[in-house]
Amino acid sequence: MTTAAIDARAGRRCHNALNSLHSTHYFSPDLGRELGALGVTDARAVNFAVRAAALGAVGAGAVTAAFYNYKHDLVARHVPAVWEKVAPEQALAARLRAVDTTLRRLLGEDAVASAEMAEAAELALRAAEGCSRGARPLYSAHADLPVPDAPHLALWHAATLLREHRGDGHLTALTTAGLDGLEALVTHTATGKGMAPKWIFTTRGWTREEWNAAAGRLRERGLIDAAGELTEEGTALREGIERETDRLDAAPYAHLGAEGVARLTELGAAFARTALGAGAFPADLLAKR
Length: 289
Prior knowledge:
By secondary structure, the chain is mainly alpha-helical. It has helices at 8-23, 29-36, 43-52, 60-67, 72-78, 88-107, 109-112, 115-128, 137-143, 151-176, 181-190, 197-204, 208-220, 232-248, 250-256, 258-277. α2 packs antiparallel against α6, α9 (137-143) runs antiparallel to α10 (151-176) and α10 packs across α14. The protein is globular and about 55 Å long. The protein starts with 7 loop residues before the first helix and ends in a 12-residue tail after the last helix.
């Protein structure tokens, strides 16, 4: 199977469906409860702990590099201090417990126990076999973790591998395009598919003044206009970034094959729609303003 056998857009659609399912736990009260019981109560610290835990008890520099679009000052406020409250192994176990509770609540017990869930898990794990470790720190660290036995947790684990594999490649594309972490956020929000600025300020640590300064740099490059909308050149840049990300992320979907990708997308999208309908994400999460 060669990468040319799969339409890159099909891989992106599959990723988008699975990433929605993966991301539900970041907005779940269950995650806060699990980490809070271990002494981690700040929502930003929770995020850093559970996503970085696969890397081990790393310092702020490693987290800032791997996460890319978080302000380093915010990261350094919580890392490595968070490891004094919770060991990485504890954070990973707490995360998996929260995912279990969250998916059961959002999808329902019938869906969790369904044949479709088991099928989706098998397909997603097979796709993940096609991922590569080189220059992909978050993917590679998560690939060292054991696959959970329960199908819904195995699907979430595979979705995490595929999400971090694509994400690591995406950072390469952003760097090549000359966008720093905040500029990447500003341009993504301008597409209408990114987080609203208020969520970026809350979760990524940037200020309105820093956002405006990044927008000014982008205007000087001709990538956004005075209203903050993408220019023709800016739209082309973002589309080029996504195409390059698709190229760097083609292998797992080529490994799965067109029929498997189509079926996994169908199953993943159905689960994601159910989760969305159950209120998995804040209503104001995605917006340009």
